[in-house]
Amino acid sequence: MSGDTRIADVAPGQTVEGVYAVVRKQRRLDKNGDAYLVVELSDPTGRIEGRIWKNADWFDRNIREGDRVRAVGRGSKFRDQVQLEIRRLDKLELDGSDAPTEAFIPATSRDADDLAGELDFLISEITHPEQRALCEAVWQGPLRDDLLHSPATALDHHAHLGGLVEHTIAVTTICQAAADRHPSLDRDLLTTAALLHDIGRAKELRAELVIEVDRAGGLVGHVLLTHELLLGAALDARLDVNATPWWPQFVHAVSSHHGPTERCRTREAVVLVSANALDARLAQRDR
User: Can you tell me the distance from the alpha carbon of 269 to that of 259, in angstroms, rounded to the nearest whole number?
Assistant: First the structure.
């Protein structure tokens, strides 16, 4: 893909050519009843919606979701969104030398090792031995690679590979800043809850051609999946959750992290809800 136009670099009026994955396609009719094709393309830098105005039915029959294609077109803008007017779309035949489909999924722009190191540092700062052991059992255990690789959401915020750890670090540092200003907060408990509040996302989401909610994971939901993972990690850390005095407050904060704050019964839960919402909203504006 050397020399190809990255999706993140597409601008209105710009000539575009590159190799992308077809994420979604939909045949539509314009106001005159003529068919056109809407195609969503993806590469590691992002996704873009394109339009094929001519020979839409032929492309609809010959291009499928999941195909890798070479697209030629021009950038345009519609309702403040950059789009692609596609003039040519050639399906590429795959062989063993081709990059895996996952190589076309948007990924974090941050260095993966730097993110992992920052996360491990936050864990090392926890002074409560049981809470630190729980975080280590999760983030430094068998699921480490899956967690570091996972997106935070499918479409909403941090919807890219590595998004979960980005979001986790941001929420944790916001929580710690609040704890620095409000000594009544339990800093270790709040840090632990922030580090672990979204780990179920690694089971709820899948990233093959596109980031999407797994059928089974979506039925259970990431909050319950998080709780199940925490119970398993507690066993690995040799914690008896029934005899651990801080466990109910911790579970309450984690399970309440989508709010509203009016339902939160502890200060730590209120802070986690607020930090989670703040980072999500800021990340959405950064897109």
Answer: 9
Beta strands of 8-142 (E only): which ranges?
15-29, 35-43, 46-52, 68-78, 81-91
**C-alpha pair distances (Å), 88 with each of 12, 35, 71, 72:** 17, 17, 6, 5
The pLDDT averaged over each successive group of 10 residues in the chain (287 residues) is 79 92 91 94 87 93 89 90 92 64 77 95 98 98 95 87 96 98 97 97 85 83 94 96 96 95 96 96 81
Compute CA distances 20 → 91, 96, 212, whole Å. 10, 17, 18
Phi, psi (rounded to 5 degrees) for 147 = -70, -45
Residue 36 in contact with residue 56, Cβ under 8 Å? yes
* Structural domain contains residue 45: yes
| d(C-alpha 250, C-alpha 252), whole Å | 5
Same domain, 268 and 176: yes
